[in-house]
């Protein structure tokens, strides 16, 4: 999306609460990657339309996305996974500050391992994948059995800085990851159990709805 259009959309977004604004400022200062405002606003709208009872997030970071999703579905239960200890601790603090400990449960560890322990839990209505991009397909395969029929899987960063569309301009350190994201996108669009749309907003968001 052109920069002037993005600036226009950012300026149209309603002002966030001061506590959310502080998290955004802290993330920018510490260079912690969180969703761009327009992308987050879009995801919130998906959440509002779906009104999920249970949400699973792969990649907590500092708890920003979990808190924003809770804004859109105040009665939801959110389970979120983070493997970085420092970010996990920051997320715990942010969630406590917002008084959301009863609704947001953070699990510390490798999501690829922890997902196997959720097989006997109640199904999730929305699953948000925003973790190691090279593992997107594996995450998707593991969470599919955890998703209710007509549930939604949201994947962030599927266009990754425009490099997925134009891999020839990607720095060498990103080329293998860009190739994996591209393979994931093609695989996702052909998945027999899902209908997927890729939206060129922010860093690219894939919305995949499971067939009933």
TrEMBL record:
GO biological process terms, semicolon-separated: tRNA methylation
Gene Ontology MF: a single term: O-methyltransferase activity
CDD domains: AdoMet_MTases (cd02440)
Pfam families registered for this protein in UniProt: Methyltransf_3 (PF01596)
Signal peptide residue numbers: none
Reactions catalysed according to its record: 5-hydroxyuridine(34) in tRNA + S-adenosyl-L-methionine = 5-methoxyuridine(34) in tRNA + S-adenosyl-L-homocysteine + H(+)
InterPro entries in the record: Cation-dep_OMT, SAM-dependent_MTases_sf, SAM_O-MeTrfase, TrmR_methyltr
Keyword terms, alphabetized: Magnesium, Metal-binding, Methyltransferase, S-adenosyl-L-methionine, Transferase, tRNA processing
EC numbers, comma separated: 2.1.1.-
Residues where Mg(2+) binds: 130, 156-157
Binding site for S-adenosyl-L-methionine: 35, 65, 82, 110-111, 130
Keyword Plastid: no
UniProt function note: Catalyzes the methylation of 5-hydroxyuridine (ho5U) to form 5-methoxyuridine (mo5U) at position 34 in tRNAs.
HAMAP family in the record: TrmR_methyltr
Protein family according to the UniProt entry: Belongs to the class I-like SAM-binding methyltransferase superfamily. Cation-dependent O-methyltransferase family.
Subunit structure: Homodimer.
Name of the featured protein: tRNA 5-hydroxyuridine methyltransferase
Name of encoding gene: trmR
């Amino acid at each position: 999306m052109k920069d002037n259009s993005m600036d226009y959309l950012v300026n149209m977004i309603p002002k966030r609460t001061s506590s959310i604004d502080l998290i955004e400022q802290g993330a920018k200062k510490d260079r912690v990657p969180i969703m761009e405002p327009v992308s987050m606003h879009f995801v919130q709208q998906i959440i509002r339309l779906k009104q999920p009872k249970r949400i699973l997030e792969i990649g907590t970071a500092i708890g920003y996305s979990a808190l924003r999703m809770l804004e859109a579905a105040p009665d939801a239960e959110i389970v979120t996974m983070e493997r970085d200890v420092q970010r996990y601790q920051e997320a715990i603090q942010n969630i406590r500050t917002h008084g959301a400990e009863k609704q947001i449960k953070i699990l510390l560890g490798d999501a690829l391992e922890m997902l196997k322990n959720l097989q006997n839990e109640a199904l999730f209505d929305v699953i948000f994948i925003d973790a190691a991009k090279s593992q997107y397909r594996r995450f998707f395969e593991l969470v599919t059995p955890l998703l209710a029929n007509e549930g939604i899987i949201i994947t962030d960063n599927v266009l990754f800085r425009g490099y997925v569309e134009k891999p020839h301009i990607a720095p060498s350190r990103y080329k293998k990851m860009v190739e994996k994201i591209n393979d994931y996108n093609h695989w996702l669009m052909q998945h027999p159990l899902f209908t997927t749309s890729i939206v060129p907003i922010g860093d690219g968001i894939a919305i995949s709805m499971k067939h009933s």
